[in-house]
Amino acid sequence: MAGKVTLLLWAQTLSLAGSRTTQLLVQPSWMPAVLWDRVTLTCQGWGTTGATAGATTWYRDGRRWGQQGPDHVTVTESGTYTCDRPGSGLSPPVRALDAPLVLQVPARPLLEGDTVTLRCRCRMDTSVTGVQFYHGDEEVKESLSGTELSLSPLQLNHSGRYCCKGRVNSGVSRGWQESAPVTVTVQELFTVPVLEGPSEPIEGSPLTLSCLSTPSHLRPRAPLLHLFYQDGQLMGGPQGSPQLLVPAVGVSHSGNYSCQVLSERGTVRKSSARLGVTVRRIPPSGVSLSAQPPGGQVALGDSLVLSCAVAAGTGPLSFTWHQGGSGPPLGTSPRLELHHVGDNDSGHYHCRVSDGDSMAESVPLNVTVLVPVANATITPGPLSHQVHTGDPVTLQCSVQVGSAPVTFTWLHNGQEVARGPVLELGNVTLGHSGTYQCVATNQLGQDGHRVFRALSPQLALEVTPGSLWVTAVAVNVGRTLLFLVLLLAVIGGCHCWHHWTARKPQDRSPPEEGVLLDPHIVITEQAGGKYSGDRDTSPTGVTPHPGPHNQCHFQGFHKCPLTLPHLGILK
Whole-model pTM? Predict the structure, then answer.
């Protein structure tokens, strides 16, 4: 072979941490060695260089061989050789043969996927024909040529004892010969993978599967590829990473998973055992509602958007919207949009969430449709109102439409003077004259983010001095009092008359001249000094009497100081 290549014995391997075991290298790198190849053995181990150089002890067939000295020797005799180094101990054995037929294997570690050639050689490389190879007791048919057997790619089942048989055509050993058996040990390129991951992930959560395989310490950096399967179907790979990430698992991700690791050229494949994965659902809970505008208060004709949220629960989830009782659903998505809301849209709304197995329901949200105030009016009307000073005046403001609560503000000549639906002016004065208006207000939401106002028409109030009504009352009262006075006078006159007529004639004295006791009785003097009275029936209330005595003269009468209307004065 070209060049000198240092190879490890096929029977010796290094640990991953790098052990200090003594190693015996053979050149040419075939096992077993044959004497006609001029075999050189080199002993390597701890302390090969430095002060311990030359401290190698050699053994042949278990006995000390030669002197303690050099690290490499040339073999000229058949046997089993070992060496010993201080600090690393005794090496594995190496055989050197001088047989008529020898089967050789490469003196290096054999790993899965490699290609190895076994050769059957005759002493001094003389001719050999009819070569047959055996693996155990079975003949191997994959020979490349008459003296070589190729095993490719190597598999673990290629491990075992091999030998060859052939017809030797020269020398003293003519005839059929059989080689001594050699042991072929195929080592794993990587271990059988193990698939790891959660067996019951929660729906919606990420899932990470790890395909774990340990590469051989002889080739720790051998590139490996990974494939992942679900129920026999490829779902990931080939990829260099040994992990598979599913961002969010669903029910469909339940099943049996496995992974496969293969060498870079795909000559070595190993599959893991199955891992059962069952995706577990979480029933919906914590269903809540939100509204836009906030609080569920919306003005008449505006739009309202209701949103349904779920604190916990795995899908797929279905949504239904309901108003009031259990009527037909208003919608089937997480959002419910109401355009141009009306009075009939007020009420309690709730949403229901289901995963097919269980159902959760939100707390009802009260939706209030606010009717803006409109058509504010002031009563009493009309728009122009005239009163007199001292009159009591009360104004009242009302709206035709508007959701409660409605507030009212009164303006007098444009300035705020009072609040409330009623304005009590009391007994008005001239200062109350002017224009009056009321402003009706209601608002949307507790924070009043929308305010609606309605302004009434102006009411012109004119206050004038005096009052016709008061004057009329005063006149009527005066007339009533005058009537009472006249009534009392009549009663008093009658009383005096009856008192005079009841006196004795001798006690009577004629009335004084010019005194008339009854407005309708005229007193006249008759012959003999007697007086008589006649009732006046003339329109004037005085009956004129012809004659020289047209006046009444009473003598001996008491004066009666009573003057009545329409009294006639007789002279």
Answer: 0.52
